[in-house]
């Protein structure tokens, strides 16, 4: 009887710890803009617990993997020349996506820390409503955004 009670307490403690760890990372903001008429830039701002290792980031459209920072996952073949995901200082995962199709497209940012459940956020991007990534809009999205854009611009050329 005493052993069963201890197992119950241990199970409860493990559940609380795992749930707390899994819910500790979260996607704070998902913003996007157009680098030119054809190319999309999407920034996924996330929050992590203090002193966490760098998480893995990936962008998906439904079941299709556009790109990821996880070397154990393979990018969906049609997107190898069109999509690139990178992590930048300030807890930002950026997607550069070439040749955005007309109409609406769903993009999901997934942030995963270790083996915990992923924190996700999805945005619907409508190409005709997409605003340009001007210096002003980049500065509004956060300090350093212009520098990060300039650093990633050669990837689209």
UniProtKB/TrEMBL annotation:
**Where does the record locate the signal sequence feature?**
1-24
Database matches in InterPro entries: THY1 (IPR033292)
Q: Where in the cell is it found?
A: Cell membrane
Q: Does the keyword Membrane apply?
A: yes
Q: Does the keyword Disulfide bond apply?
A: yes
Q: Which residues cross the membrane?
A: 135-156
Any GO molecular function: integrin binding
Q: Which UniProt keywords apply?
A: Cell membrane, Disulfide bond, Glycoprotein, Immunoglobulin domain, Lipoprotein, Membrane, Signal, Transmembrane, Transmembrane helix
Source organism, top-level taxon: Eukaryota
Q: Which PANTHER family match?
A: THY-1 MEMBRANE GLYCOPROTEIN
Any single biological process term in GO: regulation of cell migration
One CC-aspect GO term: membrane raft
Name by which UniProt lists this protein: Thy-1 cell surface antigen
């Amino acid at each position: 009887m005493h052993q069963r009670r201890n197992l119950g307490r241990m199970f409860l403690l493990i559940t609380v710890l795992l749930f707390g760890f899994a819910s500790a990372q979260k996607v704070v903001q998902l913003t996007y803009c157009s680098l030119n008429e054809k190319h999309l830039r999407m920034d996924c701002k996330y929050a992590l617990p203090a002193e966490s290792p760098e998480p893995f980031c990936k962008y998906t459209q439904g079941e299709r993997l556009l790109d990821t920072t996880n070397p154990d996952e393979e990018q969906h073949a049609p997107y190898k020349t069109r999509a690139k995901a990178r992590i930048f200082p300030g807890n930002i995962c950026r997607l550069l996506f070439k040749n955005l199709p007309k109409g609406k497209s769903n993009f999901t940012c997934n942030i995963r820390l270790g083996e915990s459940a992923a924190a996700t956020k999805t945005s619907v991007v409508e190409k005709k409503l997409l605003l340009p990534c001007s210096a002003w809009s980049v500065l509004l999205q956060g300090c350093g955004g212009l520098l990060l854009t300039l650093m990633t611009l050669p990837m689209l050329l």
